[in-house]
Amino acid sequence: MKYTKMHGLGNDFIFFTDPNGTDTDYTELAKQLCHRQTGIGGDGIIVVVPSNVADTRMRIINADGSEAEMCGNGIRCFAKYVYERGIVTKEKFTIETLAGIMEPTLTVEDGKVTLVTVNMGKPSFNAADIPMDIKADKVLNYDVDVDGVTYKVSSVLMGVPHTEVFVDDVTKVPLTTLGPKLERHPLFPRGTNVNFVKVVDDSHIKVRTWERGAGATLACGTGCCASAVMAHENGLTGREVDVAVYLGTLHISYSEDGTVFMTGPAAEVFETELA
Asked: What percentage of residues in the chain have a pLDDT greater than 70?
């Protein structure tokens, strides 16, 4: 099989196409391919499969074998992958995901995709949708206890569950210890992605993410969207925000009607063939 390694601002994935992969269990394959020492290495695998309701369908399986509903960086890479291989020939099209139908719009130069803007839909703030084991129409600055320390969290469903913790310095966050404890906190029955957010000014934030099922990643597209949304909901920023991650910046637009648009790059690293 041919595999393609791609990344969106460092969030890396292994791509392939499977016309018969609608219901295939990729759990063990994802674990093997994503292993950083004995496989190709990646935060997940993304499989292009046929769709009956959209132009194409994206399945994403995390490095631990769990299947995710959506992935912001992954869907930009997906859009570039299917367009440059002729699977989809339109510069605006639809992608079926477990989080619903997503609509990317491509910026193309000399046949190559340079930027992808994705209509990410509208976030849900209700605790039951995220889901969280509390009753609340909107979760803002909610007190969560971790090992005797209280953290104020804001949570939202942005295709997948995200929890934001606003901090003074994202570089000093104990990401690999606090991240998994919040991810698996009893408050979140299905787990949560965790974003540590530094507000720089009205239109700039910095984000570090611990991803559910993948661990510490260099970037998280849905996490950047969720962070921008919750920064605005907390009265800390406007509706247009540049989100800085390790390897670059995503632009997030949170429109008046609640729709979120994400614009950023996607890159192909290499293609390989494995037995």
From this structure: 100
Global pTM reads 0.92
What are the structure tokens assigned to 60, written together?
A: 């994403």
Structural domain count, the chain? 2
Average pLDDT over residues 65-77: 96
> Is 62 annotated as contributing to ligand binding?
yes
The enclosing domain of 230 has a CATH number of: 3.10.310.10
Residue 124 lies in a domain: no
Paired tokens of 122: 């509208």
Task: Identify whether 225 is a catalytic site residue.
Answer: no
- Whether residue 15 is found in the same domain as residue 72: yes
Note down the domain range covering 192: 139-258
Q: Is 77 a catalytic residue?
A: no
Computed over every residue of the chain, the mean pLDDT equals 97
